[in-house]
Structure formats: structure tokens, C-alpha cells
Amino acid sequence: MPEQIVRTVRSLSPPMQRDVDAAEYEVVVVDNGSRRPIDRTACEAFGARVRWLAAERPTPSPAAAVNLGIRSASATLVGAMVDGARLASPGLVSAALEAATRAPRPIVATLGLHLGHEPQQLAVAGGYDERAERELLESVDWTADGYRLFEISSFGKSARDGWYELPVESNAVFMPATMWAELGGFDEAFTSPGGGLVNLDLFRRACQLPRSELFILVGEATFHQFHGGVSTNTTESRWEEFHAEYVRVRGEPYEKPAVRPTFVGTPPTTRTR
């Protein structure tokens, strides 16, 4: 996804990330066996401090690669985006940093949106692809104001109930590095292409950590870009296959976390841009 990763890193770079200094955070990119090389010069052109890593033994599941990035992060607060094809809203980093100060053991999560006016699993049936998405992005000046991405996006299926309901997963979740170590990161027993339900499993286990407090960012999000993903960019559901793997790993069916979050922020429609 060479085109998508450049946009992802750009969205995480100054000046697109607001109310945070470039020296306050780093971006760690882990290449999990890309067939097409990443244009590192293009990614670094926007001013982010980028550290490049490569998985020694790339696998169809991203779990081991994401864990490498988490272990390599130098900050005390670490955020993980399991999918490198996600744009970040402009206040993602600053809002996560602020929310994390509200509790001794915070989990800060975002909702996942899809570029396009319906979830991409549905949009692909109507011909939505990289070209259509490129035209959609060109219809708004998102690089000048990343909040305009909300105008051309919709809630993903994992967050279909909207801002004030608990999602089943988060595609940008932040925790102190000590809590990531306590959790053991993403479970590498999930070996399905794309990780199957590994991200749902991570979110559920994080919510179960003792004395943890969950904060959901309202008005900040990540936006999924089309890149031919094994579950997001196909009309064929692989839920039964992925859920069967979950049952093999956990010994029980998947259930949504039973936790009451604190919502932080305001929806994008009320935001001053």
C-alpha cells in the first residue's frame, strides 16, 4: 500500500497534527514484508520524526510486526495502529496525550471510520476502489484541514453505533508502555491474513486489565483507506473463519467488552474548524 502509507504518515505529521510539537512524539513504521517498497523520502517530507523497522519474518497476520513497533517505541505512552492504511484526524495525538493524563492506568481509544459514504465492504460492490478514493480525497482540501475527512467518510462496522457507544475494536489505541508489556501486546497466536479478530481480541483484553480506565475520543478518529484489505475491501464476509480461530485461541466465543468508557471531546459537526 505505498500510496496509502505516504498519506497515513502525512496525516500524522506536523503541521497536520495540531496542538502538539513535532519533538513530543515519534512515528514508528514497521514494514511487514511489503512487495512494493515504501517511499521513505516521500513519507519524511512532511516533518514527522519517522523510525523505520522491518519484520524479520513477515507473516500474513500483522500481530508480530505491530508488537515489534510497540516494543521499539521510546515514549511512555504508546499508540498502535494495526493497519498502515489509516489517516489520522488532526487532534489524534494531542487528544490522546491529554486523555491519558486523566487516570493512572488509561486506555485511550478512537473510533474507526471508512473513507466513502458507506462502509467499504458495501462500497466495493458499487465499484469503489483506489481511483474512486483518490477522486474523493481530491474533492476536499484534507491536507489543509484534516477534519474535512469527516465530510467524506462513514462509521465502519466496528463503530456503527456512533460516537457514544462502545466499539468492538479501536484502530488507534493508546496505553502506557508498561500496560502494553503487562498485556503482552497483540496475541501472535492469531495467524489469519490481516490478523482475523486479533484487533478485537487486543481491545477486549486491554479493557479487562485490572484498574484500567477506558477513554473514547469523540471527534477524533482514523479513516480507512482502500487497499484491497482481506476483510475490509471485499464483499465476502470472513467472520465465521475468523471467529473459529478466535474460539481456538481463547476457548470461548467472542463477546464485546463489558466496560463503561468515559467519552472525551465533541463530535466533528460541532467543532470549530
Helical content band: 25-40%
Secondary-structure element order, N to C:
HEHEHEEHEHHEEHHEHE
**Whole-angstrom Rg:** 17 Å
What's the structural domain tally?
A: 1
Give the helix tally: 9
Q: List the uncertain runs.
A: none
How many β-strand stretches?
9
SS-derived structural category:
alpha/beta
- Give the terminus-to-terminus CA distance: 30 Å
- What's the overall geometry? globular
Proportion of strand residues: 15-25%
Look at the structure and give the mean pLDDT: 92
Largest sheet descriptor: 7 strands, mixed
Helices and strands, with pairings:
Blueprint: H1 2-11, E1 27-31, H2 40-44, E2 50-54, H3 63-72, E3 77-80, E4 86-88, H4 92-99, E5 106-115, H5 120-123, H6 130-138, E6 153-155, E7 173-176, H7 177-183, H8 198-207, E8 213-224, H9 239-250, E9 262-265
Parallel strand pairs: 1-2, 5-8, 8-9
Antiparallel strand pairs: 3-7, 4-8, 5-6, 5-7
Architecture overview:
By secondary structure, the protein is α/β, with parallel strands linked by helices. The protein has one domain. Helices cover 27% and strands 18% of the residues. The protein contains 9 helices and 9 strands. The chain has helices at 2-11, 40-44, 63-72, 92-99, 120-123, 130-138, 177-183, 198-207, 239-250, and strands spanning 27-31, 50-54, 77-80, 86-88, 106-115, 153-155, 173-176, 213-224, 262-265. The strands form 2 sheets. Strands 3, 4, 5, 6, 7, 8 and 9 form a 7-stranded mixed sheet that branches. Strands 1-2 form a two-stranded parallel sheet. Strand 8 (213-224), helix 9 and strand 9 (262-265) form a beta-alpha-beta unit. The longest helix is centred in the C-terminal third of the chain and has 12 residues, at 239-250. The radius of gyration is 17 Å and the shape is globular. The chain starts with a helix and ends in an 8-residue tail after the last strand. The model has no long low-confidence stretch (mean pLDDT 92).
